[in-house]
C-alpha cells in the first residue's frame, strides 16, 4: 500500500489506492454492520489482508451482511476452516513456472505474473497463497521474463496477470508493454485486470496515452461478478479502453451468495454488454485454501447457466469452465443438450 503521506501529488488513482480500506473494523463501521464480526474478520485478515477501494465500498448496501459486493471482500471465520481438496496452489502455477513470474501453461500463450499488488483482495482469489516475493519478475528489470518469452517462437500472445498488472505505474507498465511489442513473434497482448471495475479512475489519460498506440492486438479481460459492480464510472472506463483499441471481455467466478442465481447472471451479462463488454468465462471456484464456502456444486452450476442461457442470446452466455492443473486449456463444464 502507498502510505497516505506520500499520496499528495500522485495521480488520482494512486491517491484512491492509498486510501483503500484495510482495517476490518473500519469496513464494518462504514457499512453499519455488527462489530461482533470483528474478531473473526481480523483473524482471517491476518492470513490474507483486507483491501478494498472506498469507491467500491460506496456501491455496497448498508447494514446488509449478504450484500454481494461485500461478500467478495469481507474476511470471514470460514476462511480458517480447511476443506478436503483445498490447495495452496489450486491451478498448478508453481509447476508451470519457466522463469520468475512466467507461466507456460497453454500452447501459443505465455502468462506473466507482472506484480503481486492488487487494488482489492478478493477472498476467493486463487493466488492468495502465491509466493510473489520469490517469483518477482521485476527483480531484474524483466530481463529473465522477456528472455523466456522470446525463447518460445510459437508464443504469439502474452497474458499479463497478477496481482493486477494495472497496479503498476504507467511508466513501468508502458515500458514493459513496449518491450513485449518489440518481440517479433507476438501478435496479441491480453491484460487481465480488476482495476477498471473496483478503481475505474485507473483508466486515465496517462494509461491511454501509451496503451492506444501499442502495435499489438489488445484484449482487456475485466473481472466483474455482479451487475452492481458496474456503475457509470466503470462503464466510462470500459468505453475508454475500447476507444483505445481494446477488445473487452469479462470473466466471473461463480460464487455462493454472490451470483449463484439465474437472475443475477442474466443481469450481469446484460449490464456488461451495455458497457461494451462481452461475457467470456464463468469459472467454477478454484479450490484454494480458505475459499471453500464460496463453492457451488457442478450440477447446480450447470442448472444456473442453463436457466440463464434460456433467457439470453448466445453471445451473452459466458462459458462455464474449470481450470485443471496440467490441462492444455480451461475445461468446459458442458450443460447438456440445448445448453448453449
Order of strands, main sheet, comes to 1-2-3-4-5-6-7-8-9-10
Rg from alpha-carbon coordinates: 19 Å
Average pLDDT for all residues: 93
> What is the CATH architecture term of the largest domain?
Alpha-Beta Barrel
- The count of domains is 2
Can you write the helix and strand succession as a string? HHHHHEEEHEHEHHEHEHEHEE
Q: CATH topology of the largest domain, which one?
A: TIM Barrel
CATH superfamily of the largest domain, by name, is Aldolase class I
* Shape descriptor: globular
Main sheet overview: 10 strands, mixed
Structural class: alpha/beta
Poorly predicted regions: 1-6
Assign a percent range to the helix content: 25-40%
The top-level CATH class of the largest domain is Alpha Beta
The count of DSSP E runs of length 2 or more, i.e. the number of strands, is: 10
Beta-strand share of residues? 15-25%
Number of helices, where a helix is a run of at least 4 consecutive DSSP H or I residues: 12
The N- and C-terminal alpha carbons lie at a distance of 43 Å
Structure description:
Helix 11 crosses helix 12. 29% of the residues lie in helices and 16% in strands. The chain starts with 11 loop residues before the first helix and ends in an 8-residue tail after the last strand. The chain has two domains: 4-80, no CATH class; 94-332, TIM Barrel (Alpha-Beta Barrel), CATH 3.20.20. The radius of gyration is 19 Å and the shape is globular. It is an alpha/beta fold and 340 residues long. The longest helix is centred in the last third of the chain and has 13 residues, at 262-274. The protein has helices at residues 12-18, 24-30, 38-47, 54-57, 68-71, 143-150, 170-181, 195-198, 205-211, 232-243, 262-274, 298-309, and strands spanning 97-99, 102-106, 109-115, 157-162, 188-193, 217-222, 246-253, 278-283, 319-322, 331-332. It has twelve helices and ten strands. The protein has a ten-stranded mixed beta sheet.
Amino acid at each position: 500500500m502507498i502510505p497516505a503521506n506520500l499520496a499528495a501529488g500522485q495521480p488520482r488513482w494512486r491517491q484512491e489506492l492509498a486510501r483503500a480500506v484495510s482495517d476490518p473494523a473500519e469496513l464494518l463501521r462504514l457499512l453499519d454492520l455488527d462489530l461482533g464480526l470483528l474478531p473473526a474478520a481480523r483473524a482471517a485478515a491476518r492470513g490474507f489482508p483486507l483491501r478494498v477501494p472506498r469507491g467500491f465500498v460506496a456501491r455496497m448496501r448498508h447494514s446488509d451482511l449478504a450484500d454481494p459486493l461485500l461478500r467478495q471482500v469481507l474476511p470471514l471465520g470460514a476462511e480458517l476452516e480447511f476443506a478436503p481438496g483445498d490447495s495452496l496452489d489450486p491451478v498448478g502455477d508453481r509447476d508451470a513456472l519457466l522463469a520468475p513470474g512466467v507461466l507456460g501453461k497453454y500452447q501459443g500463450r505465455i502468462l506473466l505474473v507482472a506484480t503481486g499488488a492488487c487494488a482489492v483482495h478478493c477472498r476467493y482469489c486463487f493466488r492468495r497463497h502465491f509466493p510473489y516475493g520469490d517469483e518477482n519478475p521485476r527483480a531484474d528489470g524483466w530481463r529473465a521474463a522477456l528472455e523466456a518469452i522470446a525463447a518460445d517462437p510459437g508464443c504469439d500472445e502474452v497474458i499479463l496477470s497478477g496481482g493486477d498488472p494495472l497496479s503498476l505505474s504507467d511508466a513501468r507498465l508502458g515500458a514493459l508493454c513496449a518491450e513485449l511489442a518489440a518481440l517479433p513473434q507476438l501478435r496479441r497482448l491480453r491484460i487481465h485486470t480488476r482495476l477498471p471495475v473496483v478503481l475505474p479512475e485507473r483508466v486515465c489519460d496517462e494509461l491511454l496515452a501509451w496503451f492506444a498506440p501499442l502495435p499489438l492486438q489488445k484484449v482487456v479481460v475485466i473481472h466483474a461478478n455482479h451487475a452492481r459492480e458496474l456503475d457509470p464510472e466503470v462503464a466510462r472506463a470500459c468505453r475508454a479502453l475500447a476507444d483505445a483499441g481494446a477488445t473487452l471481455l469479462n470473466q466471473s467466478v461463480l460464487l455462493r451468495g454472490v451470483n449463484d442465481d439465474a437472475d443475477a447472471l442474466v443481469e450481469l451479462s446484460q449490464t456488461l454488454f451495455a458497457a461494451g463488454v462481452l461475457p467470456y468465462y464463468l469459472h467454477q471456484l478454484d479450490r484454494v485454501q480458505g475459499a471453500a464456502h464460496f463453492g457451488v456444486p457442478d450440477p447446480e452450476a450447470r442448472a444456473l447457466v442453463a436457466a440463464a442461457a434460456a433467457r439470453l442470446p448466445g453471445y451473452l452466455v459466458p462459458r462455464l469452465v474449470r481450470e485443471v492443473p496440467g490441462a492444455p486449456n480451461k475445461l468446459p463444464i458442458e450443460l447438456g443438450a440445448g445448453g448453449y
